Amino acid sequence: MRLFVFGLGYVGEAFASALRARGWEIAASARDAAQADALRARGIASADPADRDAMAAALAGVNAILVTSPPGPDGCPALEAIIPALAQAQAFPDWIGYLSTTGVYGDFEGRWVFETSPLKAQSVEGARRVGAERDWRQVGRGMGLTVATFRLPGIYGPGRSALDRLRAGEGRRIVKAGQVFSRIHVDDIVSGLLASLDRPRAGGIYNLVDDEPAPPQDVMEHAAHLLGVPVPPDLPFNELGMSPATRRFYAENKRVSNARAKAELGWRPAYPTYREGLAGILKAGG
Predict the structure, then answer these.
(1) What is the C-alpha to C-alpha distance for residues 259 and 51, in angstroms, rounded to an integer?
(2) Residue 112: count of CB within 10 angstroms of its CB
(3) Arithmetic mean of pLDDT, 81-89
(4) Which of 42, 144, 146, 167 has the most C-beta neighbours closer than 10 Å?
(5) CA 87 vs CA 1, 30, 55, 82, 98: distances in Å
(6) Mean per-residue pLDDT, 138-155
(7) Short-list 131, 151, 127, CA closest to 206
(8) Dihedral of alpha carbons 266, 249, 132, 35, sign
């Protein structure tokens, strides 16, 4: 069994590791020789997305594809590289997973959103994701491929959590009245992807989020208590001095439901809230 990952980053690495544990072979995109050499040293085959023949060779006989790379101004780079290569290789994978974002929903003023909710993306990045989701679904229908879309919120896990920010002296408690966010532990993303891989449904769209949308300052406060360090002082919300990414983050307020993933995939997050997630990271030495 073979997996190809377009964009072997934080989530892609975790998913690839889970499938390697099942005995799968892994291949991934690599845009330069240094990246390809680094992957090869780890036993991961690679292909340059700009090299059609190399991509066709990498995708020949592939069983599953995971796309993690974000779309750009010209659309999804993975779509442009993968679909012609699949056609050239006469390859028909059993499953293609596209990682999107809950940013496609935009702002719902704290109300619950579901996969059937209107897509009201407020940022350029969110709008591009809406377009990329649509393009992948159309390609899936047109080529008879099983494409599933996963809408992800803020991702955390080992090396990437409030615990790490506090240790680095970068912990902040920005307080905006009524603001909540959904989040997801990287291990729960992987288990959701595996559940879909084992029970594929063409055109499936799933919110992979935890059970408790919460204010970000609560997460930081809990992380500080776990580490036994002072809780950072409250910083009233003020867009001045914030990065564009942070401003986008606080411009959207919504609670994201994971009911469909639970019902259709039989998925349950191992870390239903940030409390279990942070405790698990700390227990594992993270």
Answers:
(1) 41
(2) 12
(3) 96
(4) 146
(5) 20, 20, 11, 9, 19
(6) 96
(7) 151
(8) negative
| Structure token pair of residue 150 | 């996963």
Q: What is the pLDDT of residue 240?
A: 65
Both tokens assigned to 3: 């997996």
Q: What is the DSSP letter of 143?
A: H
Q: Yes or no: say if 104 and 133 are a contact pair by the CB < 8 Å rule.
A: yes
The pLDDT mean for the chain works out to 95
To 10 degrees, what angle do helices 274-283 and 216-227 make?
30
What pTM value is reported for the model? 0.96
254, 276, 277, 272: which is closest to 262 by C-alpha?
272
3-state secondary structure of 102: helix
- Average pLDDT, integer, range 242-250: 83
- Interatomic CA distance for residues 10 and 43, integer angstroms: 18
Distance CA 12, CA 277 (A): 19
Residues, the chain: 286
Rg (CA), the chain: 19
| Mean pLDDT on 31-39 | 94
Q: What is the mean pLDDT of residues 11-35?
A: 97
Local structure of residue 71 (DSSP, 8 states): P
Contacts of 95 (CB under 8 A, 6+ apart): 63, 64, 65, 146, 148, 196, 197, 200
Which tokens sit at 78? 């993975």
Nearest to 172 by CA among 106, 238, 107, 253: 238
Helix boundaries (H) for the chain? 10-21, 33-41, 52-59, 77-89, 124-143, 162-167, 186-198, 216-227, 244-251, 259-265, 274-283
Please give the C-alpha separations between residue 25 and each of 16, 36, 41, 283, in angstroms, as whole numbers: 9, 16, 14, 30
Structural tokens at position 49: 């997305």
d(CA 250, CA 38): 37
